[in-house]
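explain this.
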Amino acid sequence: MYWKHLKEEWSNMGNEIVDRTERLQVLKEIVKKFPSVNYEVFKYVIGHLNRVSHQSRTNFMTADNLSICFWPTLMRPDFENKDTLSTTKLNQSVIESFIQQCQYFFYNGEIVETSNPVATPPPAQMSNAGHMVEPLVPLQLPPPLQPQLIQHQLQTDPLV
């Protein structure tokens, strides 16, 4: 995404700010600096990960688990740099905060208590025309085809 341009500001935040509320406010200010396209894509991805974490009782993908999987993709670290290894947990915790605090960062919601591993879903969104957009629904796939239903009947006499 756009993290590499803000990495210095972001790295300083991890070492200096201890207060959780202040840290979230600084993160919110950093994200506001993203170009609008990057901001909207990041908002969409984090909103989706928030919805996935909301189903963690079923899929076991808590915000912590999701952040472990997705922080390298979202933050694009340089793993050849030894300093990256020392900040791995910090980077992962930032993505976890975005997932858990999705409403705070993107929908002007309140900071939620994170003792509960299940995140809150984002509110219904407005489309460009001002109409309510339906929340994403699970994809319903048909059952897999059975091999015997796919195979064509062979003719008994190949010359006919």
